[in-house]
Amino acid sequence: MLNEYIVPGDRIELTSTRVSDRDIDESDGKGGRGKVFHSKIYDIRSEEIIEIEMPIEKGKLVLLPVGGEFDLCFYSSSGLYQCYSVVRDRYKTNNMYILVMELTSGLRKFQRREYYRFNCVLDMKCRRLSDEEKETYVSRAVEFMDTDLTLEDGLIVDISGGGARFVSDYEYDPNEKILFKFSLKIDEKPQQFSIVGRVVKSNPKDGAPGKFENRIKFLSIDSRERENIIRYIFEEERKIRRKTSDGR
After folding, report:
1. Please, which residues have CB within 8 angstroms of residue 7's CB and are 6 or more apart in sequence?
2. Residues 123-151 pLDDT 10s
3. Average per-residue pLDDT in the chain?
4. 18: CATH
5. Residue 248 lies in a domain
């Protein structure tokens, strides 16, 4: 049953797969192939038909067209799910604008997506925790006071919802705890992350004298931070797929 996996109120990302700018009312919003919109499930009619709230951008409704095709990503309590869909109708009820969506494929769960490693190149900073911080980081009660002078530069080369691999000038001991700070661009806006990680491995980097490749597992990460990292990975993969399909 569909409602075993998704329920009204769950958040959705819609990525347009076959719709052009002229199909969308430009007085209310703009869209095109690859454009991402955000919404929520309003109701589940059947195994193939769901209703969602009309997306809003900058305080204005985005009137997605009947017949528009979208890739849906559901953020539910039981995990992340994806399927394809078509807009079959749109209407207004109780001052809410609703889209009727037909699901044209079955739900696909992203199995252990938080551990999928996405290759990237991202600036970051880190440092070892003090003994006092090691005692308090688990409760997240500790506040980290840092300046650029206390943080070491590094470069993230892959990231997942569970950890990251980065290159730096410093070698770390296994199980050493470090403060890991970086920024990701999500929904076209930079978001800052400050996470404690445990060093899983730290080895000299082949072909790069004086550089070390380090892998860490995130420890002090909450569900929203993990979800935002996974969202970043989704967005970047979509950009790659669009470039590939457009032949660029």
Report:
1. 41, 44, 76, 77
2. 999 998 877 777 665 545 445 555 555 78
3. 83
4. 2.30.110.70
5. no
